[in-house]
Amino acid sequence: MKKYILIAMLILACPIQSEAAQDKLLLRDADHVMMFGDSITALGINPMFVSDYLLMCKPATNLGLTCIARGGETATGSSLYAATYMRIKPTVITTLFGWNDGGYSGPLTPERAKANRDGLTKIINDARKAGARLIIIGSPTCGDPDFGYGSNVEKAAEYNKVLSELRDVGRDVAKKEGVQFAEVHDLMMGVLAKAKAKYGKRGYCFSRDAEYDGGCHVSESGQLVITYALLKAMGCDGNIGTITVDLAAGKAEAIDGHKVLSMTNGQAEIESSRYPFCFYGDDTVKATSTRNVIQFLPFNEDLNRFMLIVRNIGADKAKVTWGAGSKEFSAAQLEKGINLAAEFMDNPFSEPFARAEQAIKGRHAGYTLNELLHPLPMYEQYLPEEKALTDKIFTIIDDKCKQERDAALAAVVPVKHTIKIEPVK
Q: Does the pTM exceed 0.90?
């Protein structure tokens, strides 16, 4: 018992950080991201969140995403068709496997570990042959240690050990192949430990149905953790933009995708082509609330900095009004800069973000695209005389995929908003 208490204390004491953190952006303009995975990815939640970030927060321009995922999939199974998928010519690849690879019962066998290793290696090799520039191996997620397997703590711990061993396999493959590695397993365990320390072991989980699936199919809160790890592996630096106001001079400047339209009586009107990432739900403990989980995850600090700097306030503090919300800050805070995205959870981007996300949602052609592409290798093998027909089918699917990506990109339109600063005497 003392051993487990010590482990928990160490997790809580350590800052949450993705192993995949980078010093610079690895994405390039017009990159096409392809996400491989099992049902955790096929749910479409973390692909949607990643798309939200790529298209609205714009770490680079004209980005696109295609989700390739199937329920029950393994790295080995996906690798059988990787070459076919690569005909879409993605430039960035992410993988997220593990739960099915481990077999769900008993310790990890050498055979299963080798199959996972070989599958990941083949995906990497096929991606490179197709010209993919950035490849990210994501580790397995984790199961809830308290709810998983019908609240069987021993079985939950046993399978988390299997998942951690598969994490080690993925890390080793990434190192040997010289590709990026996104540590999802430990990150999720760390977030859960912090959340359970606040709300109690049985008071917090990532999954709506953790009692039945071991916590495998995480809802929005857990999917945001996965998203964080993948975006960090892409090298996203979190800079959304900066607005600088000189109150005494009545001037304002904006950079990085934002421009000042006017500045009058302490009120700046801004037009922004880049959005801060916006969160759902409220502060209650719900698996669907991304707003609640960010208190345990440095998403705003690392990936979502929309800064306001105010100089020459002429008072010890000032009231900042952004949209319908107002808050007071000290002059020192404003001169250093405040993160509007973190301070104003409800803000002028909330509704535009939700509208754009609805347009983005389902436009990955993800699960459907996978089902359409999956039979093509068999057709090519058994009907070689019909190659012209199978090539035409692929071209139709590829064109549909491009149309969906273009429609998602077009859904993100500039947002006009105002920031008002009033000195408080």
A: yes
Contact residues for 312 (Cβ-Cβ < 8 A; gap 6+): 246, 247, 248, 249
Nearest CA to 56 among 419, 417, 415, 381?
A: 415
CA dist 46 and 43 (Å) reads 8
- What is the pLDDT at residue 399? 85
Write the pLDDT tens digit of every residue in 232-260. 999 999 999 999 999 999 999 999 999 99
How confident is the model over 388-410, as pLDDT tens digits?
998 898 888 888 878 888 888 88
